[in-house]
Design brief:
CATH topology: Growth Hormone, Chain: A
CATH class: Mainly Alpha
CATH superfamily: MFS general substrate transporter like domains
Number of strands: 0
Structural class: mainly alpha
Number of domains: 1
Shape: globular
Radius of gyration: 21 Å
Helix content: over 70%
Oligomer: single chain
Number of helices: 17
CATH architecture: Up-down Bundle
Largest sheet: none
Distance between the termini: 33 Å
Length: 427
Amino acid sequence: MPRTPTAAALTEAEQHALYRRSLAVVVVSQVFGGAGLAAGVTVGALLAQDMLGGESVAGLPAALFTLGSALAAFTVGRVSQRSGRRIGLAGGFLVGALGAIGIVVAAVVDSPVLLFAAMLVYGSGTATNLQARYAGTDLAPPQSRGTAVSVAMVSTTFGAVAGPNSVSVLGRFAEELGLPALTGPFLLAAVAYGLAGLVLFAFLRPDPLLVARDLASRAAAAPSGSDDGAEPVDHPGSRRGIAVGATIMVLTQIAMVAIMTMTPVHMRHHGHSLGEVGFVIGMHIGAMFLPSLITGRLVDRLGRVHMSIASAITLLAAGVLAAVAPGDSMGLLTIALVLLGLGWNFGVIAGTALLIDATSLADRARVQGSVDVLIALAGAGGGAMSGVVVGASSFATLSLAGGLLALLLVPAVVWHRQAPDPARPGA
């Protein structure tokens, strides 16, 4: 297993400086990564609808790039466990850039088969963008893990909000190049994912996961009484923490992806322009990431359980409002999508913190990758079924179902509280 020779010589101050440096590199990469993931969210469904026709297929792109993200999450997690975050994350982003290029080519040659294959590959960027949040926590103190996750996530906001709100400009740019207008955001995604991968490969040195692993090994080998940096060993409480953290993130992902995927189609059906669609999705993505700094501190101070319950309530409110809002109401749809993003933010940060609390450095990246596979598969299912539900019933039915599904977070966290672990922070 790779080792970092400088780890054993790190003082506490140097370790903290390396933590801050690693987090800064992750922040820069997340700015680019956010711009890349926004393309598929904003116009993926519209591109499929234009190429294939009918609302029932509009959810397929979200399902495919989310399924692709599941495959990538597994691979990135395994590579990171073996070779460190730098190699795993950089490779994942570069593969996502290739997928974005493939989507542009598919649209130009009007090939649905190539579109679907490219969407699978494009999902690698989505998975990597989400897994990058873990890299900022490898050297974080246990009591600051929620905050570390939030710093990594909030940096995604800048690119993620700019991308959807540039849809019209990117569309005109694509048309000037002789390409379909809806390929514009994917041109941006190719460049953004490529830059994110290069930033990580060039600057995430020494690798935070490998350093943290070496520090933990040194602490474990130290004389008795000097094991302050040791990670918790596996126990029933930790296994329950992994299960509950994964459940929280899976349920929030299904509810969010299902409603978000069909919102652009719902809006265009009611006469909204592409610019208006981009604005609503941009506000939604902003709500997914921008509150993270506050959310992370709340997760660390109020606890993982309280913020998980807050996620359930917020997602329910989003689903109900999206269901009752008139299709031509920009204001109400915007509020509903903002609440949807905020509820997702609460759930993902609380669930991530629970997962980190419950894993040891010996298998952390592998477990994180496996859990992100479940999250991605859940999103794929939500995206695929969203178009079917709307086609068979209505957007209101889909929204209500998503909101009600989020209430399952409550029994999950109640179960978690029934097995308190004194070593678990923020329970």
